[in-house]
């Protein structure tokens, strides 16, 4: 158990150094050096490096050496562009579910007759289900009311997690969830004007409520590519500070 925890810690530590711009392109991840630096045995280091290779944060060379994968500015934009496209297709499915649920709720409302004792009203309140956009707008209210940027970031992650759960497709949820673990999660936690992000997510959610594919696609593209710009800006700033 301790080995697993150590491995996970090492994975997160190296990811943080890659995502923050501390590591340089082509920097070698040598087992011996990492073990000595972190004060651990080579076994959890080896397991951590295997995970990083599988997740695309490191690459194994023909000589069996392992290097950190540090993306270029264009590659960063490519990553967020693809994530935006995938998210758009999944959100469009959620928007279709929204319309079906709205029709279902309307039918239930029209078929229920209210009685003086309130029994039918109670039944209606139990049967009517919140639509995806209603659930997401509720989360955005929490984000809006949060006072500190880090709390707004937490609400932003809750929004993303709730959205993934709304797919109701385990395979798609798994795929989308993997895109969150890495560049997107780091960007949400560390970067961006959170008021701007709130407004962007609100427009995207409106697109879901309206079943407006164009609004969803454009909103997601703006949302994710602004994070790509923030990533590149931060890395370039880090590089300039290192050179001084």
TrEMBL record:
A Gene Ontology molecular function term of the record: DNA-binding transcription factor activity
UniProt keyword annotation of Isomerase present: no
Transmembrane intervals: none
InterPro entries found in the cross-reference section: Tscrpt_reg_HTH_GntR, WH-like_DNA-bd_sf, WH_DNA-bd_sf
All copies of domain HTH gntR-type, residue ranges: 4-74
Pfam families: GntR
Domain of life: Bacteria
UniProt keyword terms in alphabetical order: DNA-binding, Transcription, Transcription regulation
Listed name of the protein: GntR family transcriptional regulator
């Amino acid at each position: 158990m301790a080995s697993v925890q150590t491995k996970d810690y090492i994975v997160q530590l190296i990811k943080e150094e890659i995502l923050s711009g501390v590591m340089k392109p082509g920097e070698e991840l040598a087992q011996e050096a990492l073990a000595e630096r972190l004060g651990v045995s080579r076994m959890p280091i080896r397991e951590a490096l295997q995970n990083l290779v599988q997740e695309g944060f490191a690459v194994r060379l023909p000589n069996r050496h392992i290097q950190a994968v540090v993306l270029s500015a264009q590659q960063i934009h490519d990553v967020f562009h693809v994530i935006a496209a995938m998210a758009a297709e999944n959100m469009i499915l959620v928007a279709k579910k929204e319309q079906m649920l709205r029709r279902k709720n309307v039918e239930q409302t029209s078929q229920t007759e209210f009685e003086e004792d309130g029994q039918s009203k109670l039944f209606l309140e139990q049967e009517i289900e919140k639509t995806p956009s209603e659930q997401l707008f509720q989360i955005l209210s929490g984000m809006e009311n949060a006072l500190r940027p880090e709390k707004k970031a937490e609400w932003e992650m809750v929004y993303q997690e709730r959205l993934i759960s709304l797919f109701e497709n385990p395979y798609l949820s798994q795929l989308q969830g993997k895109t969150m673990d890495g560049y997107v999660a780091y960007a949400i936690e560390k970067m961006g004007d959170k008021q701007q992000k709130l407004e962007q997510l609100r427009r995207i959610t409106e697109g879901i409520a309206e079943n407006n594919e164009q609004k969803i696609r454009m909103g997601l593209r703006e949302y994710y590519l602004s994070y790509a710009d923030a990533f590149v800006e931060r890395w370039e700033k880090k590089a300039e500070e290192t050179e001084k």
